[in-house]
Predict the 3D structure of the following.
Amino acid sequence: MSKLVTELHIIGENGNMFDTDMEYIIPLYQRAYAWEDKQLTQLIEDINDVAEDSNYYIGSLIVSKQFGRYEVVDGQQRLTSLYLLLNCLGIKTKPTLTFACREKSNYTLRNIEELLLENRSKIDMDRIEPGIQRGIRILSHELTKDHFDRESFMEKLAKIIVYRIEVPENTDLNRYYEIMNTRGEQLEQHDILKATLMSYLSDDSEKGLFAKIWDACSDMTGYVQMHFISKNNAVREAIFGSEWNSMPPNSWQKYKKAISGTTQETTGHKICDLIEKNFKVEDDEGYVDGDVRVRFESVIEFPYFLLHTLKVYVSLYGVTHEIATSKIVDELLDDKKLLDAFNRVVSCGITDTGRIADSKEDFARGFIICLLRTRYLFDKYIIKREYANDSADGEWSLKSLYVSGQQSKKKAYYGNSEFIRSGERTRTKDWTKTNIMMQSALRVSYTSPKVMHWITKLLIWLSEADCKNIKNDAITKFDKVAENIAIDAVRENFFQVCSNGVYAMGVNTPHIVFNYLDYLLWNDDRNGKKKKYSDFVFEFRNSVEHWYPQNPSEGTFEQWKDGVDQFGNLCIIQRNVNSKFSNMSPEAKKSTFKDMIVKGSIKLRIMSELTEKNGDKPASLYWKERAYKAHEEEMLGHLKKSLQH
């Protein structure tokens, strides 16, 4: 790690992060302390989320050494909050945090104990700073709740790390702070990781090469090819070919030849870049057929992409932990453990050629190549959100970058990624659509980036054996690879959980079960003649509801106790739908929410169609007695059939 970066433990065997001879001073140009309920409760939750087996990064502190003390350039809100937290926990801190020219703030910090004890007679309340007092009150309230486990909290707090980063000497601090404040830019874990990996390289030109590739990959907007900008597109064509659409090479020497010595602009947001007056980010919009201007939005952010890529690297190179019983990577994709994840691979990883720690330079080269190649595959084969012209309504997209024009007049445009057999000229079926539907079903089922393991699995399949699966007809099976991920999840988390043929998980039914079922229903309909569901798209329907309610509104019809949680009586809807939906009768839902239903889940549409009276039996009664069960058997039949293939 760079000598300008210091790892600080909030508390440890030798005291806490404020037990230092160096004073932290908040300069006057910084705003006053302003964290409130949302930020402070999130801080407590972040600490409570810490796992027992690893350290947890909670942010960075940017400082500048000035006259024997640290002037805080960025991160003062978190720094002050941690100071307050330690005091609220009764942990003694040295008076090493002060505010320049803010006497009330300093007076309040020195009298935290009296404020906690409410010894108003011992303090001058007119000299108390309201923002800091409010922070103390919020933290004190959180730490005295009935369910708060102090012992567990302290153990987890001991694993919390802050990185103190010193800006280079002679940095214009006023300009730096102005840029940080207006652009919202700050050094994140991935910035520290970049510096760490670059430090493994001894040659400055290789460090520059590493940085250019990293910067291109770190911009998750658009396609990575467009982030390599040079005269006459020389770098872009050297890496991706004349059509800008070939797999990047797997040779460090080829990158040195392609990039070293060329004039290239990058999209990296380093401190030295940000301070430059002419700093700018390249516009990465493009066009699809009909000259429609489009922009693309990634389904994950760069820190998570780094974690996916690390797992790809571990898989490709067979990296294992030097302690056979220990995992080399965590299952959960936690961006707050980014540095810890990479440190474990570098420090404890072994391959067929030996310990990674003994060849860090090779790891840095190998990982940056893996990063670019994985990003190329990600852009081409993992869904994005596509926005046409100035529309705010995006759609799921699987497109590849193509090029039109000649020489310096070449321009990028985007067309559907192809999943047809080599040599085929016509499509009997739109396999791109099938892939989009299957991936979007996975995307809306797993909304947290921490559990998007389906992306890792697809990227590993695309990357294995020097990307053999995209070089032959195996790519035609890509939708099945994604579908098998859904099948495994449905089998493990639904069929293996439900016993004795009773499928009654109620609102705990995994979302993937509903979404995969919708995919099967859509695909069957697509292959049939009626085409009833051609308009169906996967959206974020995140609320599992009972069609026949658990608690009928105002007792207007009888309660259903025995089978209300059965799968046949469940549907998935958008969370923002009127809360009255929960307690209405099936026929009332059908009439009241018909506009939502007609655009909703296919299972929900079918349930609505089946909600009809039968003879003299009202629709609700018939649904409860007969219709739901027939519907359930039909839906489970679709799922069971798919699990057999």
